[in-house]
Amino acid sequence: MPAKSSTDPRAAAVEVLLAVLGRGRSLDRALAEHAPMDADGRDVGLCRAIAYGVLRHHRRLGAIRDRFLRTRLRDRDQDMALLLEIGFFQLVAMDVPAHAAVSETVAVARQRGKPWAAKLINAVLRRFQRDGDGCLAAVDADPAQRDSVPDWLLNRLRADWPAQWPELLAAQNDRAPMTLRVNQRRVSLTDYQHRLAAAGIAAAPLPGFDAALVLQTPVNVEALPGFDAGDCSVQDAVAQLAAPLLDAADHHRVLDACAAPGGKSAHLLERSRPSLLALDSDAARLQRVSETLDRLGLEGECRAADATLADQWWDGRPFDRILIDAPCSGTGVIRRHPDIKWLRRDADIARLADEQRRLLEALWPLLAVGGRLVYCTCSIIRAENESVVAAFVGDHADDVRAIPPGLSVGQSTGYGQQILTGEAGVDGFYYACLEKR
Ligand SMILES: C[S@@+](CC[C@H](N)C(=O)[O-])C[C@H]1O[C@@H](n2cnc3c(N)ncnc32)[C@H](O)[C@@H]1O
Fold first, then answer.
1. Transmembrane ranges (predicted)?
2. Does 5 score more than 90 pLDDT?
């Protein structure tokens, strides 16, 4: 076995993929554990690019592999199965010279003590170079393989978005842009755009999003002018719609019930100065909310608690505004987290919908009459979005009034508005806005 911190990007990518696909780790965590940290920047980048790419196209690459192998590799040779996917990915989608892609990939099999596999991988990748086109055409005839999506998710997206699903599947495999939220309490959008340009970072505003700048090329946050001083944050534009929709004023009491890591809490405090309680049931994640507020020079109370157990944390005074950015499948952000496709299961959806409904039921009594609750998720599955809200509104017809969110992107789904991944270049998201009569 290679050392844990292998500096060989392909060897490290095998470890990352084994951690995600074999042991169910998130991609972020697997990269933190296995990507070469002390190598030069290019190597780190290559491991990351391979890991993202293989996870985006895992089903397609696996289908190609299965067409070239007469028998399935044994479970204990899962590393070699993934190494073949790494080889195909480089040949199909990466700007790596083919001879280097093949020889470096084969070398990893040898390093891992599997010379038999080195021979096999060499032969298969060379055959793919010669006769791959027919194989690709056959594999891509099946949309589940072409767009690398698990059957359960394909079935849900087809049922939920009969007209849009093909585009949606393709958009999930695109690279997401890096988008900033400019802290307009400190600097205007135009001034910050100029400061970025002076630092050699090209960025453009996004119509309909008053604080967003989309970078032409992602950069490390350390390169962003004034980042440490709180001039900007990294946040997809669609997530920047929560704070304006919540419309909190200085005199309001606001609850952000599922706050970590704190992007939306911070945004709403950049826009006005309400008294904010930021809750999250995950104490470690909540720490990031405090850090974010500190960096941005904002003030709010952070508390680790289960939002559904109000008797453990609520002081009995109603909130004027409540944000429920509910735990969800994350299917709207697959382009940023392609591991979601392989880590989520269909059975998760019903469990998440129950949790989402429990949050709504538990927090609605805490809202003041005339107050507003924004429910949102980064999911594109109706069962977590419109279905949850419609059932809730149906059961509380006496005091719930759904307000059309009136967002500049997305489509009305009845009570709420759904933005599908890639629409206007943003992530997939759902918003509903409920007022108490
Ligand atoms: C989608 S994330 C929130 C993202 C956050 N609003 C932001 O903009 O940075 C959902 C969060 O809900 C938290 N959570 C899940 N169940 C919860 C509960 N019952 N009470 C409080 N927080 C919960 C999770 O720990 C997770 O941090």
1. none
2. no
Minimal-distance CA residue to ligand 1 atom 10: 327
Catalytic pick from 232, 302, 328, 378?
A: 378
Distance 370 CA to ligand 1 centre (A): 25
pLDDT at 43: 54
What type of residue is 43? D
**Ligand 1 centroid – CA 260 distance (Å):** 6
Q: H or E segment at 205?
A: strand 203-206
pLDDT given at position 2: 42
On average, the pLDDT of the chain sits at 96
pLDDT of residue 315: 97
**Distance between Cα 261 and ligand 1 center (Å):** 8
CATH number of 237-436: 3.40.50.150
pLDDT of residue 397: 96
Fold of the domain built from segment(s) 179-234: Alpha-Beta Plaits (3.30.70)
CATH number of 9-146, picked from 3.40.50.800, 1.10.940.10, 3.30.428.10, 2.40.50.140: 1.10.940.10
- Report how far residue 46's alpha carbon sits from residue 89's, in angstroms, rounded to the nearest whole number: 12
Supply the pLDDT for residue 45: 87
Question: Where are the domains positioned within the chain?
Answer: 9-146, 179-234, 237-436
CA distance 400 to 256: 19
Count the alpha carbons within 13 Å of 5 in the hemisphere toward its beta carbon.
5
Average pLDDT value for residue range 228-251: 98
- Is pLDDT at 22 greater than 80 in this prediction? yes
Distance separating alpha carbons of residues 49 and 284, to the nearest angstrom: 28
CA-323 nearest atom, ligand 1: 6
**Mean pLDDT computed over 146-173:** 98
Q: What is the pLDDT of residue 38?
A: 59
Between CA 426 and CA 179 the distance in angstroms is 9
Give dist(CA 112, CA 364) in Å, integer: 56
Span from the CA of 401 to the centroid of ligand 1 (angstroms): 24
Summarize pLDDT for 51-101 with one digit per residue, the tens: 999 999 999 999 999 999 989 999 999 999 999 999 999 999 998 999 999
Q: What residues flank ligand 1, with Cβ below 6 Å?
A: 239, 257-264, 279-282, 285, 306-308, 325, 327
Q: Whose CA is nearest to atom 19 of ligand 1?
A: 306
378 noted as active-site residue: yes
